[in-house]
Amino acid sequence: MASPAASEVYIIDASDRYHAVKALWHEVGLPSLDGKDVAVKANFNSDDPFPATTHPDTLEGILGQVRDAGARTIRLGERSGMGETRAVLKNRGAVGIAARMGAEVVALDDLPPEGWEAVPPDGLHWERGFLIARLFREADAVVQTCCLKTHRFGGHVSLSLKNQVGAVAKRNPENGYNYMAELHASPHQRRMIAEINQFFPCDITIMDATEGFSSGGPEKGGLIAPNVILASTDRVALDAAGIALLRSYGSTPEVMRGRIFAMDLIARAAELGIGVRSAQDLRLVALDQESKDLAFDMRRILDETA
C-alpha cells in the first residue's frame, strides 16, 4: 500500500455529537455506500462507560449516517478484551442502538473457524501470524470509531490503530494458541499493533475526544475533556493528531517523550504505508471557531516534534 502524499484530519466542536458526526462525515467525502455491505468497528473493550468505550450517542450518530447513506447491510463487529463480548455490548447499549438503526451485532468470539482469515507471520513481529475477522476483510466498506486514551499495558496509546486489536482472534479456535498472550508479552507489542492495520481496511475513522484518558487506560484513567471529535481516512495521521492532543493536556512519559513519528506504533504503521510518513504530511482542518485554538496547539506540538 503506497503512503499518501498528504492527509487531512478534521476537528469539530462536540457540544452536539449528532451535528459533529454528520458534519465530519460529509466533510471527509466518502465514496457512496449505496447498496454496499458495511462493517463497523467501535470500541467496546470493557464494560465501562465512555471514554473507556464508545459513547452511545456517537455510535447512534455513525450508524445513522451509514444507514442514511444507503448501505444494504450494516454489521457491528467486536471482540472485548476485558469482558464477555455479548454482555459488554448489551450493557453498554450497543445492542439496542444497533437494533434501532437496523444493524446486526456480531460477537467475534462466536465466529466459527471459517469466520477468520489467517495472516502468515512473514515480515511481521507476530511469531505465528494471527487470525483476523473476515467480517472486516470482506466488507464493501469499513467504518471505525475510537476513543482518546492512553494504554498502561504496553500499547502506550489506544486510538485508531490500537482499536483493530479487537478484530483479531484471542485464540486460534483449532489449536487454542493465544494470540493476545503473545501480543501483551512481546517487547514488539506496539509494532505488532501497527501490523494488524495492514490487513484491516478502513474507509473512515471517527475519534470521539469529547473526553479522554491522559493517563492509565484503557478502561480507567486520568480524565480530560477536549470536547472535540476528529475524523480522517488516514489512521496514522489521526493517531498522530490524537497523540498531539494528549500532549497538549500533559500525559504519560511514554506519550510525551520524543518525536511523534518516531514512536514505535506510528513509525511502524508509516513504514508499512498505512498512512502519512511525517508530521509535515498531516493537515489539521478545524471546522468551527471553537476548535481552531486547539487545532493550533496540536499543530505546534506536531511541528515541534517533526
Structural overview:
With 306 residues, this protein is α/β, with parallel strands linked by helices. The protein is 33% helix and 23% strand. It contains eleven helices and twelve strands. The chain has helices spanning 17-28, 56-68, 85-91, 94-101, 134-137, 179-185, 189-196, 235-249, 253-256, 264-271, 289-304, and strands spanning 7-13, 37-41, 73-78, 104-107, 116-119, 130-133, 141-151, 156-158, 204-216, 221-224, 228-232, 282-286. Strands 1, 2, 3, 4, 7, 8, 9, 10, 11 and 12 form a ten-stranded mixed sheet that branches. A two-stranded antiparallel ribbon has the order 5-6. Helix 2 (56-68) links the parallel strand 2 and strand 3 (73-78). Helix 2 runs parallel beside helix 4, helix 7 runs parallel beside helix 10 (264-271) and helix 8 packs across helix 11 (289-304). It is globular.
- Radius of gyration from the alpha-carbon trace, in angstroms: 18 Å
Helix content: 25-40%
| Mean pLDDT figure | 96
The CA-CA distance between the termini, in Å, is: 23 Å
Which series of helices and strands comes N to C? EHEHEHHEEEHEEHHEEEHHHEH
Number of helices: 11
The computed structural class is: alpha/beta
Runs in which pLDDT lies below 50 for 5 or more consecutive residues are none
E-strand count: 12
Largest sheet geometry: 10 strands, mixed
Beta-strand proportion:
15-25%
Overall 3D form: globular
